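Input chain follows. Return structure tokens only.
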Amino acid sequence: MRSKAPLALMEQMVMLLVFALAAALCLQAFVKSDEISASCEARDRAMTLCQSAAEVIRSCGGEPAQALSDAAEKLDCHYDQGLLWADYDEDWNRSSQGGYRLTAQEVPTDTPGLCSAHVAVEQEGETLFEITVAWQEEDTAYAQ
């Protein structure tokens, strides 16, 4: 009578292979979900940063160049030739050379008295979030 030990050993090796394949697939799914989570977190932070900057720009009001200049001062950002910008590192802390960049720039409008600016956050040239903010210039003719 022959021993059944080789058959049992072969069965255990096949089960081990199946479990190893399942573990590899689960590990890949975990890594992918972590990447998606990090991407969504960055997009959420970019959205919050854009919205905050847009609200500050809108609250400054007035002519677009003056509004962006005042907003840069309030947000502690850089402002030069109609462009507001600030750099952030990977942990969203202010940095001189970071992975993320907040920008705001005037957008010309055809409607008199209506001002507009484009606010965006980019990461290595890819736009994570962008928003356009609009406000009215104060009409001095009716103010008196």
